[in-house]
Amino acid sequence: MTESVLIGRAEKFLGIIRRKSINADDIRDLDSFMAIYIYLKDNLYELQEFRDTMEIKGYKAPYSSLMKFGRVSSVEMKVEDLHDISRHTQHFRMRAALKKNILDRVKSSIASHKIAVGHLEEFATIKCPICKRDYTRHEIADLTTKKCVCGSLNLELEIDYQGVYRLKIIKYLPLSGEYMVKMSELSPLGRDAFRKIVRILKQEKRGIVKTVSMVVKVLEGGRWVRKRVNLDCSDQLNYEKEIRKKYGSNARIEFLQFHRKKPSIINDKHVQNALALGYVKFSEKQAENIIPIILNKSLKNSDKLKNYDEILKIARETGRRMGEDVQDQKTLEKELITEKLVKEGLIYNGLMDKELQEDLFLRKKIEEKLLVDAPRILILWDLVKYYLSTSYDRRSKYSGPFPNLRPVLDKTQINTFTDFPESLVECLKEYSEEKIEYIYHMNELLNQKFEIEKKMKGLHLKMNTPAVGAVILHNIGKLSIEESSQIFSLTTEEVICEKDKIQTFQKPVTRKAQKFLEMIKD
Q: Domain coordinates of the chain in residue numbers?
């Protein structure tokens, strides 16, 4: 397949995805769920094929071929030849840019499809009434023919209320890979919200040694020779022992350099961008319904504010129509606004009406909270719920609703979860359908969860993971057992049972339990 054919096929496929709208907001039956799920899975497979083919053909570094030829001396060549070389170079640069851009779009589309599939898998449990088998999470992919392994076609869809999902963000994801276009469509406050979310997801872990570079002095043929050596790092790597094993006992290390990696909370820029866009656009839509309700309750004089908005609208339209250039439009617009406000009695002796000024300030604060801070709060809440309700193995092996998510965070990354304002949480609880609670020490919740997972590692104890998260919410977050059980859609009995297990596990109350834990640790 030639390069132009491959690029053309990929662009055509992405164009088809762009023209098809996906609305997963109100899935309630198996047919509608499977139609969307199979469509996204098929797209994901095709996109991954495109990506693999493009990477094999060198699309990851398309400009490298331009650097092979080096500079041509202008002294030795004619002007016509130099012109031809410049024209050809420009042509190849354009083709290289096309390769880079199409691969970028394909990767963005893959990230968005993974997020969408992850949210759908968290949302549904498919049951077979004949053999009583449940298909959850990644197992749903085995049902693309809508047929159980027992042969039954009579499958049933049940909503998994313990899952962490937001089906309403799927339609806002850049499924066709055009994340730059969607970013340009954001409002100024939306762009601020987008940057805040990306900054959180890019939060890096403290540097871990990945590789070691060395200059080693080795005795070869009776003379000393210097060699450059690179070693992959492991936890218990003895560099000197490795060098002597490879080059003999006379080898000496002259220079040693550590190369560190700093993995982010989500280690993929396309996933970061897609998640940020999805949550920001979802929050903007939610805010459209919430802001008018709050303003009606809070404003001192809504009529003055409506009059002010109408004056601004008319002035802008008149300025665009009558102004010759941008500067002229702005000057005219400003003059018209001042003139109208004075005429309506909203400006007196050069000062704006006090009620109007206070209402304008209040509206600005409310919009900033709901359009800038709310998206960040929602994604932090979902991430915390996901960490609390899942096991380490599941986060390591399956992508879920947050692809490329770090299974464990360090203290620096955990500290990004501390900014969780109570007033905004209460506002979302009151005016939206969010099942969210204010947590006093959210970073301590994650610390506690990771500590428990660390202690349980290798013990093969069967735990109800969502119930463990509910217990931690109860202990650290100071919520009642009833409140924490409702968040994870559990019964209070399940949470109390898991609480007793954790207490026994952390501090054995009987001698028999203590001996048992010592035995399994050994």
A: 3-179, 208-261, 383-521
